[in-house]
Each structure stands twice: as structure tokens, then as C-alpha cells.
Amino acid sequence: MVGIFNLFRICFRQKLASFGNLFQKIRLFNLAIIDDSNCLVGVEIPEESTTNNLQPTTMKKLIVFNWKSNPHNAASAIKLAQLVEKSIPKKNAPEVVIAPPFIFLEDVGKVIKKAALGSQDAFWGDVGSYTGEISWHQEKHLKVKYVIVGHSERRKYLGETDEMINKKVLAALKAGLKVVLCVGEPSRAAARELRIKNAELRKAKNYVRKQLEKDLKNSKFLILNSKLRNHLVIAYEPIWAIGAGHSDTPQDAVEMIKYIKEFSISNFSPYGGSPEGRQFSNIKVIYGGSVDGKNIKNFIQYKEIDGFLVGNASLKQKEFDRIIKA
Ligand code: 13P
Fold first, then answer.
1. May I ask the CATH class of domain 31-325?
2. Full-model pTM
3. What is the average pLDDT score of the chain?
């Protein structure tokens, strides 16, 4: 049991300075309790040392099937979900998440047992006057476990900004949902020459870093909260590889994934970039962009890739069966 000592109730944005040292300690030991308005309202006193709670990322790969705006009707959605269930082996299965369109969440939720339910977005507000939006509250009610946030198609077609995405990340994490935050650069010039190739990769890393900084603003206390361990997943989806029929090379994807992991360790490890901290990362980093039943074998061998976010191939039985069983 965790004892709670209500130390103070002061919005840390305003009063942070005066509690500087104390706050640093609380943050270091990962004990902050935060309310809906981002205020520090208390401090957790765990019975065991917090370091005992730390887990390295598990070996189990995470596979998120993003159905996007498919299929046409509930009957097809149910059938597809049943086929996915059938593909998941009883032993040594990866963690499979099905993210159907909102209107099929309930139907799909009823027929899946081995797979978890995901949604493709969640508004930051609770229930209220938000025409057309679906809140995290309603999704939780439907037993949604994962929410995809900041997908490039929402950024492009619906004008989602990093500021909006940041609000969604914070709201979903506070609600106890697991967040799959999508980042990725829009283009990468093909280059044979190593010097140009490296320059392109550097540009892409800078782009992704800026997205991460903005999308994860003020989320540190949530990510470090012991109750929210493993609640943030980052999906690296280079936009030019999405739906393109040609993925990134596994080597370049790994290079970017390592970079994202470095970023998350130095920003979100309870121990910063220290040797202890480097052993523990609560944040999985997965790859998305034209993953299919054929190329999965090229990616799966890399331990740095914690899983996959799959679009087109998640709608075709032969493809998703091979991905799940890879
Ligand atoms: P594809 O697998 O169709 O390239 O889509 C990737 C994606 O956008 C998953 O979110």
C-alpha cells in the first residue's frame, strides 16, 4: 500500500521557484502526485524503494494495428477482429492492439480477448461541449487501453498542431490510458553518398526531436509517476514511408529509434542519463511505415525496435498473421 502525505497544493508552474530544492528531490525520486490542473497535490511514500519498481522494457513486442478509416461496417469490423484474435498464438505472443475507428470500438471490444483495444485519437477534454469529439472518458468506459495520438494523417488532414497533441498526451496519460505518440519527418532525400545520407538523417533527427519536445511538454511528472510506468509509447513513423509500399530500411529505422531512446532516457529516466538510468527506459519505441508480412522479418531481428504500428497490412489476414507470428 502506498501512503500519501499531502505536502502542499501549489501549482508548480507558478510556485516552482520557491520550492526548487524540495521539488528536485521529489522529481528525482519519482513521487509526485498531480491533479487535473497540473498541480502538485501530494507526494507518494512507497513502502519499497522506488528503484525496486523499475523494470527494463520487456522483450515482448508491441504490435498496434491502426485500421484508420476501415472497414465499411460493424459486421466487417467484427469479422476482422475475430481473425486477428485467431492469429494470436496462446504462447509467446506479442502484445497486440487493435485500433478500429471510434464507431466500431464497442463491437470490436466485445469480441477480443487476447488483443487489447486501442483508439485512433482522444480529445483532451472530459465530457462536455466539444461537438464531434470523443473524450478519453468515453473511451475508458469502452475499455480502451491504448490511444494513438498525433498520427501524421491527423496532423495533415485535420490540422492538429503540436500544442493540441501535447494537450491530448497529457489528458490521456492523466486518465491512465497508454499513449502511442506518433512522430516522424515528412521527407528524406534518397542519397547514395554517405555524407548526404548522414546529413539527411541528422535533419530528420532534428525534426523528430522538436516534435518530441513540443508534444511531450510538461509530461515529465506523468511519465515518471510510478503508476504510469510504461504508459508512453513513441511510434517513429517517417511520413514518406506511410502507405508508400516501401518502408524505411531497418538500419535507418534503428538509428532513429536509438536516437529517440537516447532522448527519452535523458529526459524521462528517473536517473537522467546516469549509468543506472540508462538501464531503465519506461518508454517503448516502435516503428511504423509500410510494415508488411514480408519485410517484418527484416525488422523483427532488431532488439532496439520494441514493436510496430501497422496500417494497410493490418487489414489483410495473410499479412497480419505473418506480422503477429514473426
Ligand atoms: P502503413 O502500414 O499503411 O504504411 O501505415 C502506417 C501507419 O500510418 C500506421 O499508423
1. alpha beta
2. 0.83
3. 84
